[in-house]
Amino acid sequence: MEIRKISGALSVSPQVTLADIPAIKAAGFRAIICNRPDGEGSDQPTFEEIEAAAEKLGIEARYVPVQTGLVRDEDAQAFGQALTELPGPILAYCRTGTRSATLWSLHEAAQGRPLPDILTATKAAGYDMSGVARRIANGGKTPTDTGDASFDVVIVGGGAGGIATAASLHARKSDLSIAIIDPSDVHYYQPGWTLVGGGVFTPEQTAKTMGALIPRGVKWIKAAVAAFEPQNNAVILDGCRVVKYDRLVVTPGLKLDWGAVEGLEETLGRNGVTTNYRYDLAPYTWQLVEGLKAGRALFTQPPMPIKCAGAPQKAMYLSGDAWVRRGVLKDIDIQFMNAGGVLFGVNDYVPALMEYVKKYDATLNFFHNLVAVDGAAKTATFKVAKPNEQPEQVTVEFDMMHVCPPQVAPDFIRVSPLADAVGWVDVDQATLRHKSYDNIWSLGDVMNAPNAKTAAAARKQAPVVADNIVADIQGRGPVAAYDGYGSCPLTVERGKIVLAEFGYGGVLKPSFPKLLIDGTKPSRAAWFLKEKLLPPVYWSAMLKGKEWMAKPEPLKVAAE
């Protein structure tokens, strides 16, 4: 943990973990302020978890959440109030510490502290608040007519889509100035978390440092995006810095909305409540599976869209397989609680999946949407909204529960001019170009094309975006089309997978001859692909601009 002192009373730091709390106590801090909203990152503990750990050591904790980059004057006032009310010295944290430093700067400016003093103090702590100074001098609004940096292509998001697009662009046109904006230190291979929860992978196999993955020649701006001003070709960062672009790619992923389920944040990681959607909790899934000898196991799936529509049931199948192998399945009641009305959206794969539902004697409960959890009481409440029936609520007891959280676009996307009516980036589903801004493209989980949100989809989308950006630079129209491809390797048992591959409209898009892998049936070859081949393809091909089995389809232009 990196603690940076700003004043005698306040220090700031990047994200605090539960393991950091004893060191914070030892450093003499008497209070903690959390400026990061819950659910921003998949490796982020909730405020309730931090608060509970801090209180055990006599440290007060205060929650003053601020959306990424959207630091308002009211937020600065709330921060200042916390500084006044809490015992010092105080440690404030967010994802990188920038939001906390910004809040302090705005609060101090409002108290009449000279700007040079604010800039000196924050600079000494490693934070550039010159953008905040411009905002203050501009009456509270960040000017975007000029910028702190400018690039040919700016990519927002250093996940699968962002790094793959940067690598593909660099391979096509090495003289482009390209920047990736992402505040994370670690890049995760999230498809591997299902196997962590199934006792196959270790968490460490799914993580690498971001700096090791950014393509050579691409600038990494380690910051969070606050806002977009597409009319000025500008991105505003935390700390009110401005980055200008000729062309923009938006691919920050989506937000796991833990707070949408009452009581969930307070009980995650304990009381038998787990999830494979968090890096730090996937091992807890396997711990619970290994420890359960009898009782009821719930597996939940929220309304669409979500990352990899098969992921919630993958956890169920791998758990069931483990219980079969240990000979305890007869004493375990498996219940799949699905907010939707079907097991899987592409019918071709359902017969094979139903065989495993029968094998594990799992009960399918459709139209059951998780709305509340009482971890101490071991109960989960679901809203049941079946067609042509009055909605009702049912409460179910559990001994173990794997939760797939509701998922939405990130806050800074939903409030931006790039978003559609429900918050996703609004793109043409073939070219992935924004419908209103010709120099903006989007890919990955954040855009609104009607495809499955999977890493495999991003693998196919990145070359399409790269081809179309290069064509645009050359003065041509779009040349490549995305066909909606997505892949969901359904881990139905340890050693076998139903390899679902499909495009727009549920059209099957198999990558291999049927004699090699018949995706509609469980196969060991597909498991070998998932466990042994796909991780190195991800790390060493997709993120390096090697577009194996990902050549873009040419765009078909309608005849006039």
Automatic annotation (TrEMBL):
Coiled coil: none
Requisite cofactors: FAD
Pfam families found in the cross-reference section: BLH_phosphatase, Pyr_redox_2
GO molecular function: FAD binding; hydrolase activity; quinone binding; sulfide:quinone oxidoreductase activity
UniProt entry tagged with the keyword Cell membrane: no
Alphabetized UniProt keyword annotations: FAD, Flavoprotein, Hydrolase, Oxidoreductase, Quinone, Transit peptide
Gene3D superfamilies: FAD/NAD(P)-binding domain, Protein tyrosine phosphatase superfamily
Domain FAD/NAD(P)-binding as annotated: residue spans: 151-264
Domain Beta-lactamase hydrolase-like protein phosphatase-like residues, every copy: 3-109
Keyword flag Repeat: no
EC assignment: 3.-.-.-
GO biological process per UniProt: sulfide oxidation, using sulfide:quinone oxidoreductase
Protein name: Beta-lactamase hydrolase-like protein
Top-level taxonomy: Bacteria, Pseudomonadati, Pseudomonadota, Alphaproteobacteria, Rhodobacterales
Gene name of this polypeptide: blh_2
